[in-house]
Amino acid sequence: MVNEDSGRVIYARRLFTGRSPVAEVRGFTLIELLVVIAIIASLAAILFPVFARARETARQTKCLQTVRQITQAFLMYAGDYKETLPGLQAFHLTTVTHENVTTGQFDGVITRYLTTKVMVMCPSCPPKYQNWYKNQFGTDLKWTYAVNGYTTWAGCRVPDYEKARTTGMKLSMFANPSSVVHVVDQAVGKIEEGSDPACTQINNERFQGTDASTTRHNGRACVSFLDGHAGTVPGGVTWNDGKYPDGRYIFRGQPGTSDEFPCP
Fold it and tell me: Running DSSP on this structure, what letter comes out for residue 193?
């Protein structure tokens, strides 16, 4: 209940201010707005890197799936041809042009063993790398994946590059296939952050010599192994010199051991 005196007070306030005290609305002060903006900026600074890492993790997963699929296609081919892997030409024909790859038109013999369209460009390879490559070498960047030369006749004590192109090696030549890298996601070239400055241009189906592993996945490179599984290895290291922390060579056999060369 509103008594007579309080009614007079309300009426007097409305008379002198022109507004009803019940309808009076208070806005934000400048200090309050600045505090809200600061909170939003802080949350953005925390969340944006989290989202970026999540996006890169998804891309790395896709990259791992791709290299695994390529190696499994090689292994299925070997299962049909007396445990003999296909030559590098099989992979080259599969990835001969980026246009064919994006439309799913494959010509390589391993194509029949791929259940889905396999992209041979790493999903984390940014346009600036592709533009740099075209400006540097006058041709489009076609793929970032390559077959480890150690798993071909090019990795023998006496390399046979022509034979490596047309004929594959028998799986029995590798005593421990689970530790032998087969497909490598390689660095685009000197433009790539953290890559070895000695790394050469790519668009070559064979990973060997001064070719270097990529650093696109948080400093590491996606690879698949000759038993069909996939994982990551240190990035920014060349085929010649790349080593694990324990001193083992990543991409080739340990010098001075029976594994130095897969064939005489």
Answer: T
Q: Tell me if 172 sits within 8 A of 83, measured CB to CB.
A: yes
The token pair at 209 is: 């010599």
Alpha carbon separation from 231 to 64, 191, 212 (Å, rounded)? 7, 24, 17
| 178, two tokens | 């689970």
Average pLDDT value for the chain: 77
Cα atoms in the 13 Å half-sphere on the side-chain side of 135: 8
The residues pairing with 212 across neighbouring beta strands, listed in sequence order, are: 238
How far is Cα 89 from Cα 95, in angstroms, rounded to an integer?
10
d(CA 261, CA 156): 5
Model confidence, pTM? 0.73
- Tell me the two tokens of residue 28: 């934000």
Residues pairing with 243 in the sheet: 249
Q: Largest Cα–Cα distance of the chain, in whole Å?
A: 112
Report the pLDDT averaged over residues 40-68. Answer: 80
Q: Provide the CB-side half-sphere exposure for 254 (13 A, CA).
A: 8
Question: What dihedral angle (degrees, nearest 10) is formed by the CA atoms of 233, 236, 237, 243?
Answer: -40
Closest CA to 79 of 168, 187, 199, 186: 168
Element (H, E) at 222: strand 220-225
- Expressed in percent and rounded to 5, the helix, strand and coil fractions of the chain are 40, 15, 45
More confident residue, 232 or 100: 232
